[in-house]
Amino acid sequence: MHASARLLRRLSSSSSARSLRRLPCHPSPSPPPHPSHLPPLRTVTRALLPHLAAPRFSTISCASTPSLRLGECGAPGTPAIPLAENSEGEEEAESVAARHDTDAFAAVELALDSVVKVFTVSSGPNYFLPWQNKAQRESMGSGFVISGKRIVTNAHVVADHTFVLVRKHGSPTKYKAEVQAIGHECDLALLTVESEEFWEGMNSLDLGDIPFLQEAVAVVGYPQGGDNISVTKGVVSRVEPTQYAHGATQLMAIQIDAAINPGNSGGPAIMGDKVAGVAFQNLSGAENIGYIIPVPVIKRFISGVEESGKYSGFCSLGISCQATENIQIRECFGMRPEMTGVLVSRINPLSDAYKILRKDDILLEFDGVPIANDGTVPFRNRERITFDHLVSMKKPEETAVIKVLRDGKEHELNVTLRPLQPLVPVHQFDKLPSYYIFAGFVFIPLTQPYLHEFGEDWYNASPRRLCERALRELPKKAGQQLVILSQVLMDDINVGYERLAELQVKKVNGVEVENLKHLCSIVENCTEENLRIDLDDERVIVLKFQNARLATSRILKRHRIPSAMSSDLVDEQASKGETEASCTN
Question: Which of 249, 276, 308 is where one domain is finished?
Answer without folding.
Answer: 308
